[in-house]
Write a structure and sequence with these properties.
heterodimer, A: 113 residues, mainly beta, five-stranded mixed sheet, four-stranded antiparallel sheet, 9 strands, 0% helix, 44% strand, globular, B: 113 residues, 11 strands
Chain lengths: 113, 113
């Protein structure tokens, strides 16, 4: 399974944009890039996913490098409720796809008021 | 829709006791998963299922067994609990398309004394 690398922690001020980076240099052509976050004492929740193009949804934006070896999750205006651990995960799409998510350590985001 | 539910929410066992954790989903998903999360760590996959009647091993399957007799339910069994199995257990479900998100349950906090 292809691996991702994220910084252990980041800090942000409330109402400012946050850019969370992820490196995935061994990504294969058909792997999807997924982001999940885990709020304290809760199960992970889906944030966004993409394959090649940048993606936007109500929660965040995902910017994918042209060579797909890295991506950035963008929270446009961080709130205190965005303080969580953010996981960048590759989900394979080739035959035999099992939907497995391999979690790394993630990035712990602290949001300061 | 209740989404993914887990029973029980908390449990304390003595070493050597057995128990079964129940996961139920009402989204008609094909794929289901059991993860464990130790303090300060990301989630690790124990076992998973890609359809009713099928199961497969994940990253850390030793000491656990699973069954998927009905599409909506995925059971995780501990035959002889050990203190190393003290953890928070999460269940998740999804459909096969690689862009599909995984939906997670609220977790079961298990302590083995």
């Amino acid at each position: 399974d292809a691996k991702t690398t994220q910084p252990n922690s980041m800090e942000s001020n409330e109402e400012e944009p946050v850019h969370l980076p992820c490196n995935h240099s061994t990504i294969s052509g058909t792997d999807y890039i997924h982001w999940y976050r885990q709020l304290p004492s809760q199960g992970p929740e889906y944030v966004i996913h993409g394959l090649t193009s940048n993606v936007n949804n109500r929660m965040a934006s995902l910017a994918i490098a042209e060579d797909r070896k890295s991506s950035t999750l963008i929270l446009h205006r961080a709130t205190l409720r965005d303080a969580a651990v953010y996981y960048c995960i590759l989900r394979v799409s080739h035959s035999g796809n099992t939907g497995k998510l391999i979690f790394g350590q993630g990035t712990t985001l602290q949001v300061k008021p | 829709n209740a989404g993914v539910t887990q029973t029980p929410k908390f449990r304390v066992l003595k070493t050597g006791q057995s128990m079964t954790l129940l996961c139920a989903q009402d989204m008609n998903h094909e794929y289901m998963y059991w993860y464990r999360q130790d303090p300060g760590m990301g989630l690790r996959l124990i076992h998973y299922s890609v359809g009713e009647g099928t199961t497969a091993k994940g990253e850390v399957p030793d000491g656990y067994n699973v069954s998927r007799l009905k599409k909506q339910n995925f059971l995780l069994g501990l035959e002889s609990a050990a203190p190393s199995q003290t953890s928070v257990y999460f269940c998740a479900s999804t459909d096969p398309f690689p862009g599909d998100e995984q939906f997670f349950g609220p977790g079961t906090r298990l302590t083995v004394l």
